[in-house]
Design brief:
Helix content is 67%, strand content 5%. The chain has 226 residues and is mainly α. Strand 2 and strand 3 form a beta hairpin.
C-alpha cells in the first residue's frame, strides 16, 4: 500500500469548485444567463477546464441548458450529487452482495485489475486515471452482480458524480484499503461481508465529497489561475 500521497488539484476541479461555490452562495443567481466565454473570463481560465466544469454542473442540475442560449443558473434545490450519494448508499451494497454470490473468475479478475491499476495510478501520481479507475472498480462490481438493470442504473448514477470522485489526498489510502477488503469478500464468496463493507464505504461518500470541496476552498490560490 502507498504510504504517502499528495493533493493534486486540476484546473477543471478548481473551475468546478469555484463555480459551484458561486452558485450555492448566490453570487451566480438562479435564472441568471451564463455562457462559457463569460465564465472563462470570470475565472481567468481557458475554455477547456471551464467547459469541463460547465458540463458537470449541467449534469448535476445546477445549470440548465437553454435552446438558442448557452444556459441559465438553476433554482436552488436538493443537490443532485446528494441524491446520487443517497441512491448509491442504497443500491451499491446490494451489488456487492450479489457479486459475492454470482461473480465468476473472469469478473473477479476484472475487479482486481481495476484495483491493482489504482495502486499504479497512485504511484504515478495520476489523479485523473485514479478517479477513472475508482469508478471502474465500482462498475465492475455492479456488472458482476448478475443484474443487467441494476448495473445500468449504477452506471447512470456514476455519470452524475463529480469528476473528483477520488483524488490523491490523505483519504486515498483508506479508500483503497476499503476497495481491497471489498474485493476479498467478493472473491471469497462472502455476500454478507461484501454488503456490509460496501455500505460502510459508500455511506460516507457525501461527507467525503463535502470535505474535498472544503479542501479545495482552503487550497485555492488568491490570484486567478492561468
Amino acid at each position: 500500500m502507498i504510504d504517502q500521497v499528495r493533493t493534486f488539484l486540476t484546473k477543471s476541479e478548481l473551475a468546478y469548485q469555484t463555480l459551484l461555490s458561486a452558485i450555492q452562495s448566490g453570487e451566480l443567481k438562479a435564472g441568471q444567463k451564463v455562457t462559457l466565454n463569460e465564465l472563462a473570463d470570470r475565472l481567468g481560465m481557458s475554455l477547456t477546464p471551464v467547459r469541463d466544469a460547465f458540463t458537470l454542473l449541467a449534469e448535476q442540475g445546477f445549470i440548465i441548458r437553454k435552446p438558442h442560449y448557452a444556459a441559465v443558473i438553476a433554482e436552488k434545490k436538493l443537490s443532485r450529487t446528494d441524491e446520487v450519494s443517497l441512491l448509491r448508499a442504497i443500491l451499491e451494497p446490494e451489488t456487492a452482495r450479489l457479486a459475492a454470490m454470482h461473480a465468476n473468475k473472469a469478473q473477479i479478475d476484472e475487479i482486481a485489475d481495476a484495483y491493482n491499476a489504482s495502486l499504479e495510478a497512485v504511484k504515478n501520481q495520476n489523479a485523473r486515471e485514479l478517479s477513472r479507475l475508482n469508478e471502474l472498480f465500482h462498475l465492475k462490481i455492479a456488472e458482476a452482480s448478475g443484474s443487467t438493470l441494476l448495473a445500468e442504473f449504477i452506471t447512470s448514477l456514476w455519470k452524475a458524480l463529480p469528476v473528483q470522485g477520488m483524488t490523491l489526498n490523505g483519504d486515498t489510502v483508506a479508500t483503497l484499503k476499503s476497495h481491497a477488503d471489498i474485493l476479498t469478500a467478493i472473491s471469497e464468496g462472502n455476500p454478507d461481508e461484501a454488503r456490509a463493507l460496501m455500505a460502510g464505504h459508500v455511506g460516507h461518500a457525501a461527507d467525503r465529497g463535502r470535505a474535498y470541496l472544503d479542501s479545495l476552498q482552503s487550497s485555492a490560490p488568491e490570484d486567478k489561475p492561468d
